[in-house]
Design brief:
Strand content: 25-35%
Number of strands: 6
Strand order of the largest sheet: 3-4-5-6
Radius of gyration: 15 Å
Number of helices: 1
Structural class: mainly beta
Order of helices and strands: EEEHEEE
Shape: globular
Helix content: under 10%
Distance between the termini: 25 Å
Length: 97
């Protein structure tokens, strides 16, 4: 069983969490000015790298707060977790972010 380190509650079982997609995706400054294609790209197109990736997670069975995490998409290992609004941490030694 995988443990995810919630910034508020500490390490908890993975079954308490829900994945929320890619982190740090800025909302368009003027969404009404976007074409249908640009709006669709904002809503649905996301990066899909192999390696460290910044993601949003929700501790749905615990504190119910959202947080960000750096997770290796090849190994599923969490390198770091951090609160919403905090800057993204640097990649750990030997990682890529």
């Amino acid at each position: 069983m995988l443990l995810i380190d919630c910034p508020e509650c500490g390490p908890r079982d993975e079954t308490e969490f829900h994945y929320g997609g890619q982190a740090h995706v800025p909302y368009p400054a003027d969404p009404s000015a976007l074409t249908d294609r640009e709006w669709a790209e904002f809503l649905f197109y996301r990066e899909n790298p192999k390696g460290l990736f910044a993601e949003r997670w929700n501790h749905s069975i615990g504190c119910r707060k959202w947080f960000n995490a750096l997770r290796n998409t090849a190994t599923y290992e969490f390198a770091a977790t951090y609160r919403m609004g905090e800057p993204r941490p640097d990649a750990p030694e030997g990682g890529t972010a």
